[in-house]
Amino acid sequence: xxxxxxxxxxxxxxxxxxxxxxxxxxxxxxxxxxxxxxxxxxxxxxxxxxxxxxxxxxxxxxxxxxxxxxxxxxxxxxxxxxxxxxxxxxxxxxxxxxxxxxxxxxxxxxxxxxxxxxxxxxxxxxxxxxxxxxxxxxxxxxxxxxxxxxxxxxxxxxxxxxxxxxxxxxxxxxxxxxxxxxxxxxxxxxxxxxxxxxxxxxxxxxxxxxxxxxxxxxxxxxxxxxxxxxxxxxxxxxxxxxxxxxxxxxxxxxxxxxxxxxxxxxxxxxxxxxxxxxxxxxxxxxxxxxxxxxxxxxxxxxxxxxxxxxxxxxxxxxxxxxxxxxxxxxxxxxxxxxxxxxxxxxxxxxxxxxxxxxxxxxxxxxxxxxxxxxxxxxxxxxxxxxxxxxxxxxxxxxxxxxxxxxxxxxxxxxxxxxxxxxxxxxxxxxxxxxxxxxxxxxxxxxxxxxxxxxxxxxxxxxxxxxxxxxxxxxxxxxxxxxxxxxxxxxxxxxxxxxxxxxxxxxxxxxxxxxxxxxxxxxxxxxxxxxxxxxxxxxxxxxxxxxxxxxxxxxxxxxxxxxxxxxxxxxxxxxxxxxxxxxxxxxxxxxxxxxxxxxxxxxxxxxxxxxxxxxxxxxxxxxxxxxxxxxxxxxxxxxxxxxxxxxxxxxxxxxxxxxxxxxxxxxxxxxxxxxxxxxxxxxxxxxxxxxxxxxxxxxxxxxxxxxxxxxxxxxxxxxxxxxxxxxxxxxxxxx
Length: 734
Known about the structure:
Helix content is 61%, strand content 5%. The chain is mainly alpha-helical. The protein has a 5-stranded parallel beta sheet with strand order 2-3-4-1-5, with helices on both faces. The two termini are 13 Å apart.
């Protein structure tokens, strides 16, 4: 994770770190508006940019946010796009995802956001909220009340109507800038195009007829492959006379935009119109494979989709985006909504949403299998990119009659993402919704889908430290699985019960259940990250009971299997146990090497639990090396992370021993006052900074550690086992 520079550390003229979209073409005009918006953000903590669809609010606001954040000294700027969010209760999850915020606790997501933003100098851009205005207004009001240094730039077609809000209505471009925009986009299609005396009058008139709305101007420029500016003007005039309505209360520019889009629709071929309508089922970005599967058939062959899609791109109706050599596509929300209307009129919406659901269920199923492979980090990134579409698929399953069991299956299949990539809260949302609904039939695949959702729900609740609902879900899962003879679900339910016993310090029971689960996995031939994590959990259960040698043997076996299969996430936890064993033996160099690898893996998957446990153990290694100041600082950094994981060190005497040993040794070497000052310094580090610090990539800014005698190495048999890498059971999350 990239360290976020403070304003004083940032190179002059650079943009504050964040997630603003890269500009793929030239930003045209609006210099005065950009300066005015910066002044508005200086004067008010909430500014809402409003305007008609197609006026360029999103592009303008992203450019303005980058400039204003630097000017205002914000440490970062973050943007959340709510256009793909359909449920009001998912707004908080979307914001948490944009903030790259992970939290293992069962706290309400809003409380997590309030805690995270409370001490940060952040500019938050909330785009596309108009269909969720009540939920957004409530959240924004509470965030601004709790975070004194937070500024929010909201972007939508109407105000939030929150106290303290300053409205910034964005007008269309001036005529000169609109003509400049037309020419710039025309050159991208026709490199030889120039705005000259021969076409300037026609171009300017086209822009005027389109009210100089950027989207409408770009759509018009997209027709230059087939038409001259003069032809454009003539056809536009015809379409205006035909399509412009006179409904009272409708703003002319709204009529004009719809006319512009409708005119582009009229000029499309039958196949282009068909694909446009079908592409509207996507939420956010999509790739070519998905488009070919979902949108083909009934008048559009799969082999033709690429050519038709290319034409829609050429007409600026679909946007092509490329990152890390991966090409994806999206539609502007206004264009997508127009296509959705046509899909609804055709009576094909439900069928297309079902095909959309089928594709993303297949993707999730394949990714679950691929999670146990060298592609694990790619799978995590792919599911993250497809999350808006997966949400749409889940919503369809849980609201469409006859589809509940598929929603249960999909929510359960994504266990590796909910647990492995720090998305516990959202995962629990979908899992609880799915199991609250009755499947349409008992037995067979219907029952198995529910059983999977139940054990995954129990697992997620354990990771959040919510033991009562976890036990209820796992007990229901085991009872029903035994009734219908589903040995796979029985093994998973027993496994998770073992996890629950482990985190509640019932070690003999944990060992018994975990050994039973592993035997069940062997009997049915199950081998994946979950099975291996069960073996690591068993290692910790026996280690806590004094048998460190068996724990090492178990984790060495896990390491070999992980290396054979290219698995990295579970490997990190096995390495964590082995690092502790190296510390016991006194090989501090090897222990640090193993822990550095754990941190790198944890950071890759946003595994907050693995990260904080590793930092805790690194602090113990560091104080043993004699650097008490750095050890105390790392403990302070870990202390800041723990509230997002749950009860610090899970309230377990077993997990607490290494922490107390480190604190005692560091305090003895530093004295109380200096120890507390180093802990306080660590507590000021952001997560990314703490990881960089622990990895040793930020040594230049470290406060000096107090030299002192190396802590004596007690005999191995006198040391207590370290914190379990699995802590809250199962495949741990970040």
